[in-house]
Amino acid sequence: MHLGDRLRALRERKGLKQTEFAERMGIPNQNVSNYERGFRQPDYDTLKKFADYFEVTTDYLLGRSTTPNMSEEEEFQSFANDPELERWYKELPNSEEEDLQALKQMWEIIKKNKK
Question: Which of 5, 49, 93, 108 could cross-link 1 (Cys pair, CB 3.0–4.6 Å)?
């Protein structure tokens, strides 16, 4: 399956028409049509937007993986290697124990709400 097939399948699974999906993504309907037919490839930011919207990996969309979601370890590695979060992540070891416990509790709430 190529990107267009996966994109179409995910869109249809959500019960969206191309026009509805395009509107939610803030892109022209013609772009969605071209992506799904394999006439055009999305740029990196658009690909990430699609992956976030459908809660799948970009590798899944690109056909590099048959698994739509990351394992917990892959999800952690993705988080840990995110350059935007690097500064924050590096500050964690210097944080107060009380703050780390509060952060841990918040993370558990976030994970619980994702299920």
Answer: 5
Q: What is the span of the domain harbouring residue 18?
A: 3-61
For residue range 45-75, list pLDDT tens digits in order.
999 999 999 988 888 898 887 666 655 666 6
Does 67 map to a domain? no
Each residue's pLDDT tens digit, 32-42: 999 999 999 99
Asked if 7 and 41 touch (Cβ cutoff 8 Å), the reply is no
CB 53 within 8 A of CB 24: yes
> Which residues neighbour 70 within 8 Å (Cβ) at sequence distance 6 or greater?
57, 78
- 66 Cβ contact list (under 8 Å, min separation 6): 60
Three-state helix/strand/coil letters over 15-60: CCCHHHHHHHHCCCHHHHHHHHHCCCCCCHHHHHHHHHHHCCCHHH
